[in-house]
Design a protein that fits this description.
With 307 residues, the chain is an alpha+beta fold. Helices cover 30% and strands 31% of the residues. It is built from 8 helices and 15 strands. Strands 1-4-5-6-10-9-8-7 form an 8-stranded mixed β-sheet, sandwiched between helices. The protein has a 5-stranded antiparallel β-sheet with strand order 14-13-12-11-15, with no helix packed on it. A hairpin with a 2-residue loop joins β13 (287-291) and β14 (294-298). The N and C termini lie far apart (47 Å). The structure holds biotin. Residues 91-93, 114, 117-120, 123, 125, 133-135, 179, 189-191, 206-208 line the site of biotin (BTN). Biotin binds at residues 91-93, 114, 117-120, 123, 125, 133-135, 179, 189-191, 206-208.
Length: 307
């Protein structure tokens, strides 16, 4: 299944009206200033996304039930120009990359399964049914940051996703730069990719969360009995909220959400290994490590706890 919803399209407006209660096709066509056929087509599109809509004789349409993944409810929450939902896709990040090479539109892509999910540092992201695979893209100017400040987005997305998952699993934490950990195992990862020309850079933020799916040596949210859609809604809400925040507040929140401070770690960064005690993150989002009496600043890499 693939659903594409463009901002303000008739089906989205019809959906909003259906949520108010029974609506007549005639009233809807008047209210939305579209033909009766357009209303009917919109209803058919909503039905094809798994919603059950019935026609009540002499009254109009009524929304009976929503599917397990309520695409329209979720599309409504996103502040994007184009919204894509897939049953299966190669990778939601790769899909948005392809889309951006054709047209620059602020978009969201969500899939129930990925066949070529990508992680940080060229790794694979195991993406079976039961997990959340979410990506969004927007120009950097939307959040007023420059290309050299990409780590800020990485950390901001980490704060957003950690806060979203904390609503379900209150003991999750962030491990630098933005792995979300649940009892020392990774439950969620974020892949931020730059796209487009340097004059007008766009970013793709991809979020993977293990919800009901099992991944070797990783955590999931199974014990909490949540649905993928619940997690998706929380991630969208928190991302919207955090991307509007001031970087200083995000940095403070990041420091509150991590349990790394004062811990001994090993960092693999560009072929080098550093060990030391984490002291914080600086104003650029780089990790501050105290290593053999010296302060080392690390901009990117892989981080492991030392015992
Ligand atoms: C990591 O290695 O920690 C980052 C994992 C990011 C996975 C998400 S799932 C949605 C989006 N599509 C991808 O192919 N990757 C990201």
């Amino acid at each position: 299944m693939k659903v594409k919803i463009v901002k303000d399209e008739t089906s989205l407006r019809v959906f909003k009206a259906l949520k108010r209660g029974v609506v007549s096709g005639k009233d809807l066509s008047k209210e939305l200033n579209v033909s009766r056929t357009a209303v009917w087509k919109a209803i058919e599109k909503i039905k094809s996304a798994g919603y059950i809509v019935r026609g009540v004789r002499g009254k109009g349409y009524v929304l009976i039930s929503s599917p397990e993944f309520p695409v329209y409810d979720i599309a409504e929450m996103c502040e994007c120009e184009e919204f894509y939902f897939f049953d299966v896709v190669d990778s939601t990040n790769t899909f948005l990359k392809r889309l951006l090479s054709e047209k620059k539109v602020r978009s969201v892509a969500i899939a129930l399964k990925q066949t070529a999910g990508r992680g940080r540092l060229g790794r694979e992201w195991i993406s079976d049914y039961g997990g959340l695979y979410f990506s969004t893209c927007f120009p950097l100017r939307d959040i007023g940051i420059g290309i050299e400040e990409l780590p800020r987005i990485t950390l901001t997305a980490g704060v957003a996703v950690c806060k979203a998952i904390r609503e379900i699993a209150p003991d999750c934490t962030i491990k630098w730069p933005n792995d979300i950990m649940l009892r020392e195992k990774k439950v969620s990862g974020i892949l931020c990719e730059l796209c487009g020309e340097t004059e007008e850079p766009w970013v793709i933020v991809g979020v993977g969360v293990n919800v009901k799916n099992e991944v070797p040596n990783a955590a999931n949210l199974k014990e909490y009995g949540v649905e993928v859609a619940d997690v998706c809604k929380l991630v969208i809400l928190k991302l919207k909220e955090c991307l509007k925040k001031d970087w200083r507040d995000i940095r403070r929140e990041w420091l509150e959400l991590t349990d790394m401070i004062g811990k001994r770690v090993r960092i693999n960064s560009s072929g080098k290994t550093y060990t030391g005690v984490v002291r914080g993150i600086d104003e650029r989002g780089a990790l501050i490590l105290e290593s053999n009496g010296e302060t080392v600043i690390i901009f990117s890499g892989d981080c492991f706890y030392e015992r």
